[in-house]
Amino acid sequence: MDDLLEMARAGNVRVAARELDRRIPPARQPVWAASLLAAFRDRFPPFPEVQAVYETALERTRWHEAHHAFSGVRALTLAAEENEDTSNYDFLQLAELVAKVTYNASGEDAPFKPSCGLELIALVRTMAEALEDPGVRADVDRLVAGQDAQQDNLVPPPIDYLHPQLPAGLRRVTMAVVEATPASLEGYGRLVDDPEHCRVEIVRWPARGSRPVDADTGDQGGTTEGVFVSEWQGDVLYGRNEAVGGHYILAYAQPPELARTDHAELPRRMMLWHANYHPAGGQLFFPLDHRPFYVPLALPGDDIAPERFVCFRFDGHQGLYIHPDIWHEGVFGLAGTQRFFDKQGAVHARVSVDFAREFGCLLEAPIP
Fold first, then answer.
1. With contact defined as beta carbons under 8 Å apart, do 195 and 223 qualify?
2. How many separate domains does the chain show?
3. Statement to judge: residues 126 and 190 lie in one domain
4. What global pTM score does this model have?
């Protein structure tokens, strides 16, 4: 990140800010900023206002609260200026910048200036240099020196798909249920009559710099295949993907806090809590039991919203192929156990959205 600071000092602040957003996408910046704040927290008093900023940055559904959290810390900073107390001043300014970065990532009106991320980097550099602790300096270097939002310290911990621990009282967003036809699936993928003749797209590995990846390389990882099982157990729909060794809770027929698995009643609805897309390749689902099924889909874009999902209904006689980057969440049988042939890119990269925690909702579709 030193090159961005030099760029900003030379007067190219907007260009530097845009490059920071490229290296660390805004959706990752609050967690990144919170990790920088955490590197210094133990060296300063436990201000409740600073803790509020930290907790807000870690919870996406609260990012819009960061402006209020900023105001709480700002009152402390102004008091320190009035009393000429510099003992905690830099730390309070750091918390202010974390709040600004977090609020800007929320997409709310009246954002702070886009350079606050750059100011954050400059400040933590200065604070680390002032300390005689090489461990802290190493931590700060590790967090800001050229690292992007895909590296380990910025990636959230793996999702526990079998024990998602969803909050109670989630609102529901109803998806439109649409018959799957060649026209309705345009842009998402296509219907498949014969899985043997369905080619799975593999996305070429992206270039890291200005030089392109050689034309005959970067897309040779191939595919993997297996059986995808969709199984209702009471109020819970489980999915098992043998192609990639995955086992998940796909959906619920009752609010998660009320869901039970000790009965055999048919589900009247399905409520989806999570979705994902695969940037590295497409995916094929073909029904082996020839019974109707659902597949919720949304078009590409990391600025995803629950309202963008459409629930496609299939009669069970044709399969579905989806393009890379299409939001989905497996295949949803409508009752009992259903099996599907699954074929997908062997590089199982997955980008997720957690509707429950990010939007406070579940996606719902009725089951006739």
1. no
2. 2
3. no
4. 0.64
